[in-house]
Structures are given as structure tokens and as C-alpha cells.
Specification:
There is one protein chain. The chain is about 35% helix and about 15% strand. By secondary structure, it is an alpha/beta fold. A hairpin with a 4-residue loop joins strand 15 and strand 16.
Amino acid sequence: MTDNGQEDQDHLVAVVGMAGRFPGAPDVEHFWENLLAARETITVLPDRADPAHPEFVPAYGVLDGVGDFDAAYFGLSAHDALITDPQQRLLLECAHEALERAGHCGVDRPVTGVYVGTGGNGYAEAVRARLHEMPFVDEWRVRQATAPDFAATRIAYHLDLTGPAMTVQSACSTSLVSVHLAVQALLNGECDLAVAGGATVVPHLPAMRYTPGGIVAADGHCRAFDADSDGTVSASAVGVVVLRPLAEALADGDHVHAVIRGSAVNNDGRHKAGFTAPSVVGQAEVIRTAHEVAGIDPHEVGYVEAHGTGTALGDPVEVAALTRAFGSGEGREAPCLIGSVKTNIGHADAAAGVTGFIKAVLSVEHGVVPATLHYRSANPAVDFATSFFEVNAATRVWPTGGPRIAGVNALGVGGTNAHVVLAQAPHRGESAPATGHELLLVSGRTPAAAEAAADRLADHLAVHPGTHLGDAARTLQVGRTHHAHRRFAVASGTQDAVTVLRERATAAGTGALSDAELVFMYPGQGGQHIGMTAELYDGEPAFRRALDEVADAVAGSLGFDLREVLYPRTDTDRAAAAGRLATIEVGQPAVFAVQYATTRLLDSWGLRPSAVTGHSLGAYAAACAAGVFAPTDAIRLVAERGRLLGAVPAGAMAAVRLPEEEVLRLLPADITVGAVNGPGQCTVTGPAASVARLAQELIGRGLEARVLRIATAGHSPLVDPITQRFAEAIEALPRERPTLPVLSDTTGAWADADAVRTSGYWVRHMREPVRFGAALDTLFGAPDRVLVDVGPGRTLATLTRQHAAYDTKQSVVRLAPHPAEEASEKAVLLAGVGEMWARGAHPDFVALQGDGPRRRIALPTYPFERRHHLVPPTAPLPATAATPATSMASSASVAAVTAAGLPAAPPEVATARTDAVADAPGRASAPEYPPVLKAVLTAFGQALGYPDVDPRDGLFDLGGDSLTATKLAAWAGSTFHVTLKASDVLRFQTPSAFAALIEERRFDAGAEPKENPAT
């Protein structure tokens, strides 16, 4: 075998994600820990003993929480969740988790196929036995909820996967055949990503009947290949893997756990003793074929994860087939290890193949082969003497040098055999060092889920402090679904991230809108300072290009390079630059330049405003963002404006905390109101000496007044001599109709699209007071708007929050630190991006990450908010220590299928109500509703699975669908003798609206309801 160069990768498939539930292990990590610790997680079940055979020890690989499911997350009603086969529910959750762990749960996921299978578990029979308690469930509904035909398509539907979706059934080899089919689909170009695996989940264990000499072990242990083996032990398990062509996985930064070099599937045909018997010929042939496809020599294989059931016929035949396929073993440096995960967890039937596959992947990835339990001496019927296989009885490091290669066997009753060849992933260099701040995102469908997701991530980073934060950020940004309730953290290291995530400083709020309306607000002069945006200029190419563009354009007008003022290199240069930046001639173009560059940077990240406004000088950056002025024209106009304002008599401005009416009574003749930023937020303007004198007088009276760092008297009569020349400068420039709404800070109203192009508009803007408070009143009219202070500084964010009409529900975002704030500019900007995302914006996270190589890594998955949904068995069994009443069927489960005992409404429905929480202790008695509404509420509850439906709850909010609507329409028509269709229910989705429609139809038809419509 050659190294995995590019020429070899066309037929190779990467394993990029894994998820599962196993006996004693809720996930893959715990499963691997159990294997390394040589733990057996099979449970002895004394109450399932066979009285006829006291020597029999009943045992099973029990899966915890088989009845628990987050129905609301997948849009299912409680009733639909109740009747859906638990193994299909768990497959759905594990498919979601596997895609999350692969970093491919985002909106830009490649075309994804699904190849899964399930085992038989008797759940459909349990549901059918309760149909008399479920009036809105019929045989079609039962079949759709339980038949294995729908296992793959259910996943495809709920996860929006658009590649092929195929249910696979080949008994014990089902899930490894699924892997093989997924590999073929990827290599044939039928999909770009594939989910493969299987599940066997038995929610209600039947009584166990022991047959001496049969396939079930008498002592409750699976002793594969051992002299004392006498059968296997059954188990429940779920396993799912995510596969992708290796070349694409490497190019896209996926984490590659292992590489599938080749696979094969065949059937024994009649080359065996009987239908259920295994075949040496068939098994050997499938192994040889897989080796040929993989392009390897058998002596390169260091480990085989065997089917290894511990049965009298199965183990000898399997080893004989392996020996025939592998040949004499000449050239081997060490024995080929062989083992079976069934000794740990039992035989998981349809999930057995993928469980062994996951074990082998982890072994290849980590270079460790876990022990095969209970092996003391070889089964005499197994011919190890003529083979080079050795049962791996103790956990050990990989036995051979060179690239690690393993084989995985799965052999189905009926003769369908599968073999997969796995190899160690190619070596890859580390991600580029994470040197700056990173934006970490978590979200949930409910506020509680968002908090739980933040806690999970914090706990993970605390336990894994070496996590590459840049890789984590990339995975969370592009590899996860972004739900409505959102949290984020900006951090420069894992400990920093843990602290921020646990502080709850960035609450998810009321939930993000589907598409946030961003309003960019540009402040005027006053926030400028030496070095502002230096970090962005040095580290963000898009920012640098934009600032260079306008700095070059204005250099001729200024007579120097604006960048020398913004980013001086020496202390001497800093002193000179500070003096220049304090002047209006330089300060104004400097502020415009950084505002324009910030806007372009945000644009490169996919963050574009829906509307713009500015404060005084900021109106020019707003107009430029709206396309009124070209950037190079705009900065030259701003420079000319600054030069003209610098030529007027020395002026000043002062902030006064009084209402405009009171300020006007205090002003001398030569001072006017220059700005009204809100009730009690005024700025006065006039000659410098007069402004300074007024400020001192007001302070002496105990009033709040402060002279601003603006060396001009803009928005006052002092600018009258320059207005003509300014108008001529504007007339000389091309001006376009705005492409965005522009909110005028002169009137506080939306500017006319034609007026904003005229010189008169801008002359008036220079001369008249700024009325930013009125502009805020307009913006506050739509509380869902996200108001973004583009900077520099945080002046407008502060003014917005100080406004009397400000509501804390209104999102105000700042993008730059205060000049006196010791904070990273990139960190503050990323926090602003996070806040915009949290309110529903859609940043281009690929662009945000830049050009540095980043990887997808395994991180904590979504915190499902599970509830118990399980139809009780047809003949309830007594609870045992292994199957407590809380996890298996109980008397409470019987009530769960009746309207009186259904679970409460989903969290997002229940929390949206303004009345008392359903089922709260001591709550007021239920209100008395009119008979028709009462009947409709009962019907909704029975059809959807909730006992306490509110008249305002929507059908879809409760997990209903068109089939539910059809049944409700049929019920209403039969009960009230009116004509109704499913479309009526879909149009009038709430019980109150539907009841009103029934009353209207009854009145029109003169119909009379049945005597007891609520029954």
C-alpha cells in the first residue's frame, strides 16, 4: 500500500463523524471509555428467568432512556412521538448528533444521503393494542410511524437531507451493509455526504425462553472465540456514522477519524448447511473482494473486528473464512489481532455492524485495540493453529508498524455478508495558531436549551483546555444549525471562553428574528483618537483595502497621508498626529475613513444595513453607504467640509442636559441649539468664548454642561458665510438615488430619495440643528430593528440607551471601544457581530474566518429536552433493578395515551402563554368554555397528545400536520354535521378560530350537534 497521496484518494472515503447510544454509554466517548476499561455493560435480568431452566441467566444489553425523545425539536406532536417506533426516534437523534459532530449541521451542508436500517422490536403491536384509547390514530398512521420502510426517509425529512434515502434490511449485517451502500453512493456521485448506520431498540423486553444448545448464552455472557462460549447475548444499540470522500474532507478541514479504503457485500447463496447457517465460502469471498477494492495485502491488516457472536457454529466458520481470505500469513511481522465488541455490550442485531465499525474506527484513530472480554483459552472448534490470528484478550497498543489498517466483519442471518477495510487517516499539519479573539456561538429552540448548550460548551472547554479555539469557532459558526434563542462568547483562549459562557452575560433574549433589520448609525466628530482601528487595519484585509482607497483619494486634498495621522509609528509622530487629528480639517475625513472601512469590512462579512442614518458628520458616511456619493467623492467632500468649517470664526459646542425648551430660555443671542439628541439631551453651539462662558454659568447653577472636543460651531449661524461654497462643492459631484432608506438627522424623518441628492439638502443639514432624538423616535417605532453604532467610539449607542423612549428590548450594538477603554478592537467588533447574529442577522462566517486554515472538530451536541413517550407493553411486566418503572412501561404510561394523562405542551408553546402554566401546582381551575370550543379543545388534545391545549395554541406549534388536519376536519364534520375540509383546519389553526368556524357553518346549515360533542 502506498501513502495516501492525491492520486490514491479518488476511491477513499473518510469517516468524519460518529454518534450512538450503547448499553452503559449514552455516546461514543463513553462507549470508548468502557471499551478501554474492559467493562462489560450487559445487565442481568432476574425477573426474566426461565423456570424450566434454572441454569439460565437471563441478560440483555439494556439501553437507557429508550422512551425519551425531544418531540418538539423535530416538530412532532406528543401523540406522533408516542406512536413512532423508539428505534427510529433514536436513529433520528443520533443522525442529528453525528452531523453536528462532523460539523455539517449548518445550512450549507453538502447534498447528504441516508442509509440506515432497524431491527424488529414489537412496538407496532404495542401501539395497535392501544388503538381503542387513541381515537385519532388509524392503521395507516401506525404503519407510517413504525414500519422500517420509513427509517431513512424520516431522517431525511426531519433533517432536510436531499440525497438518496434508503432503508436497508439484512438482519445482523444491516448497518455495515448500510455503510457499504453509503460508500458506493459517494463514489458514484449520488451524494456528497452520507449518514449510515442502524438501530435495534427493544423498549419492552419479552420473557426469555432458553433453548439448550441454541444461540443464547446460558451464563449471561458473550464469550467470543473462548473455550467456554455457548452463545450470544442480545442488546439494544444505535450507531450512526457520517462519511465523505476523503479528498473533499481534507480540503474542507473535516476531522477524519479514519479512512474507508474499500468494502464489499455478498450473499452465501446455497453454499451452506441451511438458510440460517453461515458459510466459509461466502464470508471468505467478501473479505477477499474488500481487500482487492482497498488495494491492500492481507498482511498489512493489524486487527479485525469480527462478527464474533460466541455461538457454536458462528465463531469457527468466521475464523475459517478469515484464514482462507488472509492466506498463509507469510511476511507478517506480528499476528493479526481479532476481537468482538459483543463481549462488551451484547449482540445488537441491526446495529451490530456499525457498533463494531465505530469500535474499529476508534482503534485505528487512537492506535489502541481494546480487550475482547472473557477470553481465557481458545475454543477447540476454532482452528487458530493454522492461522495467524490471535484473540486480543487485553487492551494493547496497535500491534504492527506502518499505517494502521483494520477490517470489520458483519454477517447476517440469511447470508448477507459485509466487510469493510479501514485505514489510519493521513497525517495533517496543525491548524494555524489561534492568536486573536474568536466568536463562539450556541443556540437552542428554547431559552433553556440555549443555556444548556452554553453550559455544555463551557464544560467541554474546561475539560479540554487544549481545544483549538479557532477550530471550535469555525465548527460552531458553519457546522451547526442556528436556532432562535442564541448565546455567544468572544474569547482569546479556552479559559476565557469558559468564563464568558458561564457569566450569562450574553443572554439569548426573546429569540432571533428570521431576518434582522439592521440600521447602521454613523456618529459625528468627537470620538476620533490616535490609533483608532489600528488593530483592524493591521489584521483585516477588507478593512485595509477600503481605508487605503479613501486615504489615497484624499491625499491630494489634505496634502499628506491620512494613514500617518491615524496610525503613527513613533512617539514623535504620535504627538504631531494628535494635534492634527484634533482639528476639524483632519478629524472629519479621518472619522469618515474609518466609518467607510468598517462598513466595507462588515459588508465583506455579509452584514449589510436595511437602512442608515448619521449624526452630523456621520450623515455623509450614511449617504455613502446608501450609494448617494461614491466613496472617493465622499471623502473629498468631507475634507472640503472640514476645511470650510475650519475657516469660520472660532467656535465650540457644549452638551447640556436639559430639554430644548429650557435650554432656549437660557441662551444668549450668539448661541443656538446645535443638536437635540433626545429629551434632556441638547448641544449648544456658537463662538468658542461664549460657549465656554455659558457652560461655566450652567455648572455654577448646578446644571450639567460639558464643552465637547469639536473645534467648530457647526449647525449655527456662524456657518452661513461658507454655505454657498459648500453647495458648489456638492454640485460638482455626481450624486445617485439612495439604494437604502436614509433617515435624516435634520428632520428625524425618512429622507426623500430625490431630495437627498440635492445640494440644498446638505446645506440645510450643515446649517440647521441635528435632531437625532427625533430620528431615534422614528427608529423606536419598529422595536425589532437592530441599531448598530458603527463608531468610532460608542457615542450613538450611549445616546440611544439614554433616550427616554428606549426600551431594553430594542437591540443596540456597538462595534468599537471607547477611546479610554482598554479593549481589543477586534474583540469588540466580534461581540457586535455576535449580537447582530443573536438578533437574527446572517453573517457570512466563512468570510469572517478569513484565509487561515481552520478545521471542523467534535464539540458537544445539541441538548435535547427529552420527555417520556412510550406506549406500554401489551402485557406489562414487573419492574426490575435493571428496568425500573421510571424507564419502562408503568401504570403512568397507560394514562399517557389518554387525553387525561398526556404530557404538557412543548416549552416554546407553554412559555408563550400569558396565563398560568399548565399543570402548575395549585393553579386555578380550568375556565368554562362554550360547548363547541370545549369539544374542539378536547379533540385537539387527543389528536396531538396534550391534555391542556389553550384556545390560542396553533396546530403547527403543537406538532400537527396536514394529516392531523384531515382527521380533525372529519371529526368536526361527523360531530357537528357540517361540511369541513383539512384546508379549513389549516386556515383556522387555533382551537378558538376553528370553533368559531364550526359555529358559523352550523348557523349557515341550521345543523344541530350531537348530544355530547365533547366526548
